[in-house]
Amino acid sequence: MKTKDLIIEEFIKSFGENGFEGTSVDYLAKQVGIKKGSIYTHYSGKNEIFTIACEKILDKCIVAIKQLLEVERDKPLDEQLFILLKTVCLESDFLTADEIAFSKRVAILSSSELLSLVDKLLAKYDNFIDDTVSRIFIDCAKQKMLAEEEITSAISVYRMLLENLYIDSLANQNCNEKLNHLWRYFWKGVCS
């Protein structure tokens, strides 16, 4: 693995354990086996390393979700939506333990500078999720599973479910039962 990649891997691990302030450039250099100044040969500083680490994890999520939905594309549309919800919220098997810890730490950031940066980075992921969910709901309307005029509302409620279940999962709450109950009522409401 290249030094540049090792720095990102060590940052993800350290950030997940210690947060942004607890992850020093000096520590990263020691972990990677280089001098502190050599970090700046690869990156301008911690903010750039943080940005690249976030992008790496978000891109990994997007690729994994695309692959999953490709495998599941022949399943009924409601099952595709349920699988997407369950995967994003509960079964991030495609992320390492360090990447999950990093993601949890990002979710509780307090620095306004970092929050602003994360919001910009999340826009790509959010757009991907919105496009994916929209496509599935449009297909549901074409199959007369819901009225066309209900697509926007269904997408909004689905996104709220997704975001709330994701937040609950970050708190290490067992969300499987909650997901199953919410899904059943959500889908009944969409189809009525």
UniProtKB/TrEMBL annotation:
Residues 24-43 bind DNA. Keywords: DNA-binding. Residues 1-61 form the HTH tetR-type domain. One of its GO terms (molecular function) is DNA binding. PROSITE patterns: HTH_TETR_2. It comes from the Bacteria. PANTHER family: ACREF/ENVCD OPERON REPRESSOR-RELATED (PTHR43479), ACREF_ENVCD OPERON REPRESSOR-RELATED (PTHR43479:SF11). This is TetR family transcriptional regulator.
